[in-house]
Amino acid sequence: MKLRTFILISLSSFALFAWVVKSSWALDAPMSEEAVAGKEVWQRYNCVSCHTLFGNGGYVGGDLTQITARRSPEQLSDFFSNPPVIPPHQKETHVALTEEETQAMTAYFDYLNTIPTLGWPPQPRVLEGGDAP
Ligand code: HEC
């Protein structure tokens, strides 16, 4: 390859790259600032050591990917301001969060709940009729 061709291809590749980067700036931020703050709360308290998101994490607590579909903001706020004693030791109480942290956490959970999971997690099959035991 001639040097001139090489330089031409390099420059046009760089121009294309710069254009893609610049146009991506115009895209909406996928997460609100509050949701980002919630993600930081999630990381600071190491929630992932006991809970899974999209199936990844610890299995002591449940999966929280779609928790806001099951729990209202009031229920979450009650839970974090007055956390229950948790298994397996029955001595430790669950991590408590401040009102501000709970709001951020809920915003993050709300964001997670908008991510399509194509039916995951699978729901238990309910058998109707038939001779299944
Ligand atoms: C030491 C392990 C552990 C850590 C760390 C932990 N959790 Fe939990 N979490 C549990 C267990 C166990 C339960 C189930 C409690 C129960 O059902 O009595 C639970 C329950 C919950 C629930 C209620 C779930 C439901 O179905 O109602 C939420 C919400 C929750 N955790 C969020 C969090 C968040 C957010 C963090 C980090 C700030 C966190 N947890 C950190 C163990 C943990």
UniProtKB/TrEMBL annotation:
It holds the Pfam family Cytochrom_C. Keywords: Heme, Iron, Metal-binding. One of its GO terms (molecular function) is heme binding. The keyword Methyltransferase does not apply. This is Cytochrome c domain-containing protein. It comes from Desulfitobacterium hafniense (strain Y51). The keyword Metal-binding applies. Residues 33-113 form the Cytochrome c domain. InterPro entries: Cyt_c-like_dom, Cyt_c-like_dom_sf.
